[in-house]
Amino acid sequence: MEANNRSRGMLPRLFGVILIFLGMLNSLLSWRGGLVVNDFYLLLIATGLFLFAMGVIHRAQVAKDTAVNSPGTQDEYLGSERDAL
What we know:
Structural class: mainly alpha
Number of helices: 4
Distance between the termini: 36 Å
Largest sheet: none
Order of helices and strands: HHHH
Strand content: under 5%
């Protein structure tokens, strides 16, 4: 179950990085070739950033829910620290 939670949000982040890379590569190649940078390339970059951000938020949300629902991880640490004092 824990391994499944670590991979949450991976697919949107992966597609986001691919779209960012393709948009940047296409825009840089057309700029280098002396052509006008098309708005489609900027749309690819923006969509990639959006997908990447959605994946990061989803992963953080799942990690937060898992930490809240897991029994006593932080409480045990704080309890043992208090006992040492």
